[in-house]
Specification:
Blueprint (H helix, E strand, L loop, with lengths): L1 H8 L18 H11 L16 H7 L12 E8 L2 E8 L10 E7 L13 H9 L3 E5 L11 H17 L6 E11 L1 H11 L18 E5 L13 H11 L23 E6 L5 H13 L4 E6 L10 H18 L6
Parallel strand pairs: 3-4, 3-5, 5-6, 6-7, 7-8
Antiparallel strand pairs: 1-2, 2-4
Length: about 325
């Protein structure tokens, strides 16, 4: 079924998808029990919950002044705003699929919309470029380096997606096979490019779609505003954690608000100890009920950021690769 849905998603302006069976959906009662026990779901895990922390993560905590650039990849400036050049880095295997248009994947780093750098997904980019895709990791504005809100981060993500599609010809990309990907806050931004019709930069060419044809999300922050299915006790926590983070009402920048809209095939990876998982399960419930393909792959006992290194870097990368094979974008290894 995944192959058929991915093929449908590759059609321009058409994301007609099939629903999962009711047995495959996440029971809302089980979700509510979790909320009652934990009273937290938002993008604010404590530092000790993060796994696979690297020097890049340490730099986030120190609120670095400049984003670290990948060692490899070709730099392109996809947007200039307020005299700030925003780069993305393109990874291509020039030997693969010569003269054929290739699928692409565009990564957005995590860091709570306040830190992080495109280096986070450099290794994933190298993997997918060797597999024959065009892989891209994007720098966007964050609050530790720029006076921005979440709204601005969404604008930058959509600008990057438009730039990639606008330059598909010169990069040998199939404009109908572009995936958005990201981790945590970056996963939030990737999802936003698929489901939000607002938050477009004034400099963007709106005639070019920012919507991806597939989503690959690593513990994304999909429920950053209170939802009526959550216990009332969560409301105050949600307001405290996200107060002032956006110019628009926080519900307007929360992907859960839009989960019932048409969207491309989506796969997510979560550790079962990650508090963001339950918000993602609400998102999955709404999305599948609307007829979308939305899968969550879980890893027992793992916390937030578990995919960044070690065994679970390999496991999640292999699962993402299989997702693209099932979509018909890649051949089996």
């Amino acid at each position: 079924m995944r192959i058929a849905l991915c093929l449908l998603a590759a059609l321009p302006s058409c994301f007609s998808l099939l629903a999962r069976t009711p047995e495959e959906r996440i029971p809302s009662q089980r979700t509510l029990v979790y909320f009652q026990d934990h009273h937290m779901l938002l993008a604010s895990n404590t530092p000790e919950e993060f796994e696979g922390e690297s020097t890049q993560t340490t730099r986030i905590k120190k609120r670095i002044a400049k984003a670290e650039a990948p060692q490899n990849g070709t730099q392109h400036i996809y947007k200039t705003i307020s005299n700030i050049d925003l780069p993305l880095y393109v990874f291509q295997n020039q030997q693969s699929q010569v003269h054929n248009k290739r699928p692409a994947i565009v990564f957005f780093f995590g860091g709570g919309w306040s830190g992080g750098s495109p280096v986070q997904f450099e290794k994933q980019c190298e993997h997918f470029s060797k597999r024959g895709m065009v892989a891209i990791t994007v720098e966007y504005r964050v609050s530790s380096r720029h006076a921005v809100k979440i709204d601005d981060c969404i604008e930058d993500a959509k600008s990057a997606m438009r730039w990639v599609r606008a330059h598909a010809e010169e990069l040998d990309i199939d404009p109908n096979r572009i995936a958005a990907a990201g981790g945590s806050a970056g996963g939030h931004l990737a999802a936003c490019t698929a489901i939000m019709d607002k938050f477009d930069a004034s400099s963007d060419d709106k005639a070019i779609s920012a919507k991806p044809n597939a989503l690959v999300l690593f513990n994304p922050a999909l429920a950053i505003a209170w939802d009526e299915r959550m216990p009332e006790a969560v409301r105050a926590i949600a307001q405290q954690k996200m107060s002032g983070r956006s110019r628009a009402p926080i519900q307007d920048v929360s992907p859960l608000t839009y989960a019932s809209t048409e969207q491309p095939p989506c796969i997510m990876f979560f550790g079962t100890a990650d508090r963001l998982l339950q918000g993602a399960q609400l998102y999955q419930e709404d999305s599948t009920e609307a007829g979308n393909l939305c899968e969550i792959v879980t890893y027992d006992g793992k916390g937030h950021g578990f995919f960044n290194s070690g065994e679970h870097y390999d496991l999640t990368l292999a699962a993402a690769d299989t997702f693209f094979v099932d979509c018909g974008w890649l051949s089996k290894q």
